[in-house]
Write a structure and sequence with these properties.
It holds the Pfam family Pept_tRNA_hydro. By secondary structure, this protein is an alpha/beta fold. The chain has six helices and seven strands, in the order βαβββαββαβααα.
Length: 185
Amino acid sequence: MKMIVGLGNIGKEYDKTRHNTGFMVVDELAKKHDINNFKVQSDALIADFRVNGEKVLLVKPTTYMNDSGRAVRPLMDYYDVDLNDMIVAYDDMDMPVGKIRLRQKGSAGGHNGIKSIIAHVGTQSFNRVRVGIDHPTKESVVDYVLGKFRKEQITDFEIGVQNAVAALEDWTTIENFSQLMNKYN
């Protein structure tokens, strides 16, 4: 089984905000596979589909961003998901809007959702797909990440989401993560 985790904050007030990038990636992947009914389990919204007979679990933690690990770890345990079979999609302020980057490990880079997952899984070594949201120029970091994309950013962001979805779909079938990084980075 593979597990794709999209990070974000639950609630209408956070819809389409930069910090909900992971949710938007998972939602787009779900849409592509005609999935529209997530259910609640272990502080998360989950759904699944199959690729070549293997189950792929989509996860959107409902714990709010800063406590995402509290939802992720119990699902990994319940479904017996190995760290190599999990990937996390999330926003990255240190990359231009829409740019994606895949990594197998690394620090949280100041991202509280990733900090929480690292704390709950006990390692920095897990797969990630980061989608650039750019860095604020005038507003505070909190206001920026909890704000919506500016009109001139939307097209680049949507391309980034589509590229992240393509990378995640490839991830479900490619054994060698380095090949995937070479293709998308």
